[in-house]
Amino acid sequence: MERIYYAGATENLWGPYTIGFLQWNGERWIDQPEPAFVANEEWEHGSVYEPNLVYHDGKWKMWYVAGSNREDYFVHGYAESADGSTGWTKHAVFAPPHMKIFDFCVRYRGDAFDAIFSRVWVREGTPPLDTGLWWCTADKPSGRLSDWSQPIQIMTAEDRGWHSGPWKPSFQFQGQGGDRAVVFFNGSYRTRDPGPFPFAFTLGCLEITLPFGSPSNNRQRA
Predict the structure, then answer these.
(1) Is 37 in contact with 17 (CB distance < 8 Å)?
(2) In Å, how far are 33, 104, 110 from 48, measured between CA atoms?
(3) Which of 118, 120, 126, 171 has the smallest C-beta neighbourhood within 10 Å, fewest atoms?
(4) What is the pTM of this model?
(5) Beta strands across the sheet bearing 18-24
(6) Which of 121, 123, 147, 152 is nearest to 136 (CA)?
């Protein structure tokens, strides 16, 4: 079963958002008539987006953002579903607002799982040093951040002209079980447009050798 999950808004560009998916029927991608996932917890502030999913152990497992850029409020959530459309488990907080985790992309490698995620900064001024892309690993794709290894930063928010503060990472390993990965990410830069959207989006690529090590040897502190 092949799917592409996405977030969309029916009212305006800034949300609130819900999550849906396209499904491949063998000939073309078919959109679903209703959202597959909507906000239902107070801490989600009515909006869910930036979905990242894996299918593991008979379940669709989803990490997602709740909140909004305009409020500078980002909580990272987690939920599971047998069919990826209905019957979701209770929405749980995966990472608290102060961490500002915006994406959590998970990939299978060997007998463990890797994740690359972004920490963002949407305020004015110089971003904190922890803004950028981070890597961690775990024995299983857990919905608890404490089950993942201590993260290692792989990209900062240094202003490169065409991008600063990378987000929305997606990555693929070069060869089964290898440690060399190609990481795609979004970036942006400010334009001189005085309108309500004074920046342009860009797409970047990073090639990196990810660290080795057993996930069980380097756990996150809860």
Answers:
(1) no
(2) 18, 14, 31
(3) 126
(4) 0.89
(5) 3-8, 18-24, 29-31
(6) 152
